[in-house]
Write a structure and sequence with these properties.
Number of helices: 10
CATH architecture of the largest domain: Orthogonal Bundle
Number of strands: 3
Strand content: 5-15%
Number of domains: 2
CATH topology of the largest domain: Arc Repressor Mutant, subunit A
Radius of gyration: 25 Å
Distance between the termini: 73 Å
Helix content: 40-55%
Strand order of the largest sheet: 1-3-2
CATH superfamily of the largest domain: Cell wall hydrolase SleB, domain 1
């Protein structure tokens, strides 16, 4: 091996080592982005709907974080006196009242409570329809327009007739327990619905006006 090659090899090794040390010890400043330009999903839908309700977002609720959403987030941040970045970071989501990242744990208490409302509202429905009712409850917990706890959603005044008509106190079907576990695990056959109703049993104009996402058994599931 000639001397020039040896010198070059030693220099390359040294530079690689120094670069590694530099990367290892150079402090990096960053902020964790929750939703930003280009993001998609239910969190973006919640951001858009909340900003739309407050008159800051003028587009359609699509679940895509584009230029209109970014501009609306900037307006909101400016109004609230927080850093104007156009990024829906942790501080911005907190001010918006959105906490979609906080999933409910499948504790025995949560399984039993969710199964009870599933059994009361969807007894006699196909299994996937029971999971779908559980998914609606889960979607409401994570939606900014509803309470952010399981009990808060289920016992919300005027929402579920089964809570006050006696059905809620009936024995819980075994299929409802399994459906509750599936819903808590994240199975959502509805595609993000926050309402469900049986069109043959209700004439509620508000429910009938909602966008129907899917029909399972006797229930329509809507956004």
């Amino acid at each position: 091996m000639n001397s020039f090659f040896k010198i070059g090899l030693v220099a390359l090794v040294a530079l690689t080592f120094l670069a590694g040390v530099s990367r290892r010890f150079t402090p990096v400043e960053y902020s964790e982005a929750y939703s930003e330009y280009g993001s998609r999903g239910r969190e973006v839908e919640a951001i858009q709907q909340t900003l739309k309700d407050w008159g800051l977002f003028y587009g359609e609720v699509t679940g895509y974080y584009g230029t209109q959403t970014e501009a609306a987030v900037r307006r909101f941040q400016q109004n609230r006196g927080i850093p104007v970045t156009g990024i829906a970071d942790a501080a911005t989501l907190k001010h918006l009242g959105i906490s979609l990242g906080n999933a409910l744990e499948a504790t025995e208490a949560n399984i039993q409570l969710l199964a009870r409302i599933i059994s009361a509202e969807a007894r006699g429905e196909p299994y996937i329809g029971q999971v779908a009712v559980g998914a609606v409850i889960m979607n409401r917990v994570q939606h900014p327009s509803f309470p952010d706890t399981l009990s808060g959603v289920i016992y919300q005044s005027g929402e579920f007739s089964a809570v006050w008509n006696g059905q809620f106190q009936q024995p819980v079907a075994q299929t409802a327990l399994a459906a509750a576990r599936d819903a808590l695990a994240g199975w959502d056959p509805t595609g993000g619905a926050v309402y469900f109703f049986n069109p043959a049993k209700t004439s509620n104009t508000f429910l009938h006006s909602r966008q129907v996402l899917t029909t399972i058994g006797g229930h329509r599931f809507a956004a």
